[in-house]
Amino acid sequence: MDYRAVVVTILLACAVSIAAVHAAEQPTGNVPAAPQAEGMGAQQSVATAAGSVLPPARAYGDLSQARVEYGRYMTLAGDCVACHTAEDGKPFAGGRGIETPFGTIYTPNITPAKGYGIGGFSDEDFLRALQHGIRPDGKPYYPALPYPSYTKVKDDDLLAIKDYLFSLEPSRNQPPATRLRWPFDMRDLLFGWQALYLHDARFEPNPDKSDEWNRGAYLVEGLGHCGTCHTPRNITGAKEAKDALTGAIVDGWYAPNLTSDLSEGLGAWSVDEIATYLASGEAPAAESPAAESAAGPQTAALGPMAEVVHQSLSQLATSDLHAMAVYLKDQPAKEAPPTTAPVPHQLSEASYIKGRTLYDSYCASCHQSHGQGLAPYFPALAGNEAVTLEEPNDVIKTLLLGAPSDPAEAYSPHVVMPSFGSIFTDEQIATLASYIRANWGNDAAPVSADQVKALRGER
Ligand code: HEC
Ligand code: HEC
Ligand code: HEC
Q: What is the Cα–Cα distance from 347 to 353, expressed in whole angstroms?
């Protein structure tokens, strides 16, 4: 690969790390009480419980009710409805926007309408999309469709999902086309991304573990795509697998460490407590970091996780939730990728860790892990006087609005800095600005959320 191609790959991985984020709605407060699924085994009709979010299964063609029911259950486990339904839209008719700094990715209609949805997909087309990330016309999909997880799912389970989707009423909804900014609009470049980051292989049970453990692993790693949110995506750092489920930032929410780490992870939770959380969003009192960080006493899952619980997990069989809990509980304690650098004197440890997590997820792919940049494409932030000016206004504006503001003064004619104003809160912009101003030998004063707020207003 030539140098140029490497850079493009970095850019893409960067786009994608942001794109893979769910476009989460604002916190809705408590998760509505979900019906407790009873009985064992996905084959049973547990998923038809009242209050469910998916249209009921119905037999059609030569497919039995049981087969379509099973497909519906797998569809719930994959939370397909979350992304493929617009606000107030028909389930699976598509059109939900997933924001990235490079443009909005719209989810397609996956009802069986020919020409609008996936009515024209053969079984092979469907498997190729979900396991290999390839469209029927041979072009790659953006990994905003979580095929890096779905690739682990057995053919038959995915085809059951297809059978269920094909039992639905076709919708002629035509979601807006996805147009990302150059170079992210060039789908062919995603082949490079797939070669590097897609481990195209079905789930292999671990013979040393119980059937229950393996069932849990299959659901967590495959259809549950929990790692999409809970695994850090620092492509410049260590390999992902090592950091699996150690926690990451999603749309400004912290999706916590799910390993058995005692201080940060689920180490202090029992298997039953984990299963209860998955079923209801209710965390064990006080011990949960999520409970602590929220204002006031708080026991319910918030933000993107509330949606996962409501639309997917709360609809699954208790036996499956228990299996997932068993698997999670058996994950050896792993801390989020360790820091090697000491905390700069201007920052509290908490602010440093927040800044680092945000930086690693959203900035490092371009500006590199130590702020050293990548000439001639991305300026260094370390030792950059524009970053450490006493007046932090320019840094804040760059983050809010993107750069360059004047194309004639662009650092490089080929790349731009995306704007982060609509993705981050004032607090987060301040945390990031403070982090880059105090790190890697930079020595400037921190920035406050009020300073960011004032500049936002000025636009
Ligand atoms: C995190 C959001 C997300 C989830 C969850 C998700 N999808 Fe998607 N899906 C997408 C996006 C985004 C695309 C379009 C990607 C692109 O344009 O490259 C897509 C594309 C597809 C396509 C291709 C449709 C076409 O017309 O080319 C199919 C089929 C599909 N998804 C099925 C599923 C199924 C089945 C599930 C659940 C197992 C699922 N998706 C879950 C986001 C999601
Ligand atoms: C769309 C992103 C997303 C997905 C997908 C997701 N989570 Fe979460 N998860 C979160 C966020 C964000 C939180 C923190 C919620 C809060 O602050 O209340 C969380 C919290 C949790 C917690 C509570 C941890 C604690 O310490 O409080 C558990 C357990 C959990 N998730 C398990 C899972 C499992 C298992 C899956 C896969 C089936 C999953 N999550 C999928 C985003 C996600
Ligand atoms: C897609 C790649 C990309 C990403 C992601 C990115 N930047 Fe940039 N950044 C650039 C480019 C390119 C420039 C130079 C823009 C110009 O021509 O003025 C830049 C400029 C800057 C500058 C101004 C430097 C100067 O010399 O004026 C700051 C500060 C900055 N970025 C911080 C960040 C932070 C913090 C993040 C994470 C939230 C981030 N960037 C994410 C590409 C990126």
A: 10
108 pocket-lining for ligand 1 (C-beta < 6 Å): yes
pLDDT at 47 over 60: no
Q: Are residues 256 and 357 in the same domain?
A: no
Beta carbons within 10 angstroms of residue 76's beta carbon: 25
**Spacing, Cα 403 to ligand 3 middle (Å):** 7
Alpha-carbon distances, residue 40 vs 56, 68, 142, 321 (angstroms)? 19, 18, 36, 11
* Domain final residue pick, 329, 362, 392: 329
Q: How far is the CA of 255 from the centre of ligand 2 (A)?
A: 5
* 141 CB within 6 A, ligand 1: yes
Out of 329, 363, 378, pick the residue that ends a domain.
329
In a domain, 336, yes or no: no
6 CA to centre of own chain: 24
Residue 23, phi-psi category: left (phi > 0), alpha (psi -120 to 50), beta (remainder): beta
Number of folded domains in the chain?
2
Going by CA atoms, what residue is nearest to atom 38 of ligand 2? 224
- Please report the atom of ligand 1 found closest to the CA of residue 82: 5
Which of ligand 2's atoms lies nearest the C-alpha of 283? 27
Question: For residue 444, how far is its CA from the centre of ligand 2 (angstroms)?
Answer: 35
- pLDDT tens string 140-151: 998 889 998 999
pTM of the predicted model as reported, rounded to 2 decimal places: 0.75
The tens digit of pLDDT for each residue in 392-431 reads 999 999 999 988 888 788 887 767 788 888 888 999 999 9
Which residue puts its alpha carbon closest to atom 39 of ligand 3? 363
Domain span at residue 222?
A: 3-329
Nearest-angstrom CA–CA distance, 217 and 214? 5
Nearest protein CA to atom 32 of ligand 3, as residue: 399
Query: Same domain, yes or no, for 150 and 179?
Result: yes
Does 293 share its domain with 410? no
392: domain CATH number is 1.10.760.10
Question: What does the pLDDT average to over 124-129?
Answer: 98
Q: What is residue 416's predicted lDDT score, i.e. its pLDDT? A: 79
